[in-house]
Automatic annotation (TrEMBL):
This is Rap-GAP domain-containing protein. Residues 1-119 form the Rap-GAP domain. The keyword Zinc does not apply. PROSITE patterns: RAPGAP. It comes from the Eukaryota. Keywords: GTPase activation. Pfam families: Rap_GAP. InterPro entries: Rap/Ran-GAP_sf (IPR035974), Rap/Ran_GAP_dom (IPR000331), Rap1_Ran_GAP (IPR050989). GO terms for cellular component: cytoplasm.
Amino acid sequence: CLLLGVKGSKVETWNIVFQEPGAQPFTPKNIRSQFQHVFIIVRAINPCTDNTQYCVAVTRSKEVPVFGPPIHEGAVFNKSKAFADFLLAKVINAENAAHRSEKFSTMATRTRQEYLKDLVTNYSTTTCVETSQKFSMLSFSSKKKSAWRPRFLADATQRGAVCWPVALDDSSRAVLVDCLLAISADTLLLVEESSREIVFITPCSSVLGWTTNTNSLRLYYHQGECMTFHMRESGDRDELMEVVVRLRSVTQGSVTQELALKRNPLGQLGFHVQPDGVVTQV
């Protein structure tokens, strides 16, 4: 019994061959096809009984790579849901492996090219669209539109990192380094664009606060260390505000404040420094 893998009008690349006990060995040479690359042979043992079992073998074209799940030599499978899941996984992997073969990739590329040619030939037009009054509601105007930007989600439910292009102020070398600032729900990091190396990383829980100044931001973290970076997109203040909103959402830090501290009669400034470097009781 030969079961072809057919899905709608799409001919699949695999077949399942069911054999009864005592059947002659199967050979794919008896089937001539340009599409069938994999045959999965399932032979029943003690069919139609409570002790039904199956043995499985696979034959594939030379260009199809090896795929799993593996079948151990002499393996026998009991009739169960586990065997059905195993067979389904084998079929799915057979389809994926066949698609990676050079022959099938060439055929798929040629098919896509023919579809594109048909689309251009039969469904394109040279008619110009008139921007008259009847099309005014479609907004065909000469006014330049601003570039579309994706919706900005700053809250902590956005677990992945949100990125901005920035210039990191490297005070040790007195240069600006082009980086990507990425802030996820639990980590803040800077990646140098030219080398793709991480130049700074810290957990969001270590962020103490920040100070904004026109188009730059100074970030305080850990025990009072700080760094400064500048937004690179032509001085776009909106992006700096996005960074601030993201920091408020995923860290416990806040905007810094400047305080004028006066000394008491003993000459003390009147604040305490905790062991972790945080100034308290100002």
